[in-house]
Design brief:
- The complex is a heterodimer of chains A (about 110) and B (about 120).
- Chain A is mainly β and about 110 residues long.
- Chain A has no helices and eleven strands.
- In chain A, strands 2, 4, 5, 6, 9, 10 and 11 form a seven-stranded mixed β-sheet that branches.
- In chain A, a hairpin with a 3-residue loop joins strand 4 and strand 5.
- Chain B is mostly beta strands.
- In chain B, a hairpin with a 4-residue loop joins strand 7 and strand 8.
- The mean pLDDT of chain B is about 95.
- Classes of the chains: A mainly beta (about 110), B mainly beta (about 120).
- Chains A and B meet through strand 4, strand 5, strand 9 and strand 10 of A and strand 4, strand 5 and strand 9 of B.
Amino acid sequence: DVKVTQSSRYLVKRTGEKVFLECVQDMDHENMFWYRQDPGLGLRLIYFSYDVKMKEKGDIPEGYSVSREKKERFSLILESASTNQTSMYLCASPPRRGTDTQYFGPGTRLTVL
Amino acid sequence: DQQVKQNSPSLSVQEGRISILNCDYTNSMFDYFLWYKKYPAEGPTFLISISSIKDKNEDGRFTVFLNKSAKHLSLHIVPSQPGDSAVYFCAASAGRGSTLGRLYFGRGTQLTVWP
């Protein structure tokens, strides 16, 4: 069974802190994606990666960076957390080559105080 | 500008009846369409998809219809059950190699199925 896991289900951080969100997939796929989901705004793409050490900006990259040192792991970094980054963060990856279907992790609910 | 639009933020349906969720898109390069279901505090789960070479795809109680000329797709759930209550997201992609497999999502429709 394919699996995308995220390091934390819930996180509470303070304004200005550096925050790391980790995502791991066991599907041996190149593509990985980070989204945030906010009520009424749907899923918005922050960054994605199509290979190790490769990254592309999505629609809302400001305030975020990413790291992809290994194929199975894709990290989202909030350099200096702000209250408007309070959100549900979702990682996704396709289950196999040849499909654009994405499987999502369980999400991390981040609250920035 | 949003390339995938779900114009109804919410839909309320009685148990046993049909639920119809709608989605419109603007990019004519989109050739693969998906529906996801999301419960609170969980990640979205893939529900059903359709390629642009088809106009209908069915999986149990779920059927997706695609009207390419109108750039419109819909998800039908028959019969609706209380466990179907969730947010449904429509998504589209423009094919492998052009956008590296990224999906474009609508804003979602909250479906409530009442007994």
